[in-house]
Amino acid sequence: MSERPYVIDQMISAKAIAARIETLCDEIQDEFAGTDKLVVVGLLRGSFVFIADLVRELNLPIEVDFLEASSYGDGMESSREVRILKDLRGAIEGRDVLVVEDIVDTGFTMQHVIRLLKGRKPSKLRTIALLDKPSRREVEVKADWTGFEIPDEFVVGYGIDYAQRNRNLPYIGKVRFT
Ligand code: IMP
Ligand code: MG
Q: Rounded to two decimals, what is the model's pTM?
């Protein structure tokens, strides 16, 4: 896609993200204390950095699996139609599951994934999103844990892309067109 020139302004530092993850993991550990083996499900691709940091802070027996849902394509607007591009490898019936998302924006992706996975009868299903843009919500859904609430800005970094770029930035930055 043709890109307008832009710069990236830092919004959340790597240090702030790491500190927040420590707190979140304490809460997640309390919630899942005594679990046999938690299935941590990362939504590809945006959550890959977040899930990597999250699981290394989690002192619980876990498995990791991935699900790829697509609603954005390469643009900046949700298509509102969620497709599953890659399904889980493992069964989750009777298991404790934590879904890890990068951003809850309109809410369509999270709503779709929750419905899909609930249909598979996990014993417990919880959700965590690194970022939440509540002002953009179109369907009523909220993650059980949220890293940071942010305003209606297009962000990149820490796994999150704009047209597939900038996923490797260690911090969250906002895209500003110049
Ligand atoms: P939703 O279905 O509208 O809630 O969109 C969720 C997905 O849109 C997220 O998992 C992201 O992949 C993508 N998304 C939402 N906001 C942004 C953003 O600011 N930057 C990059 N991707 C975003
Ligand atoms: Mg995503």
A: 0.95
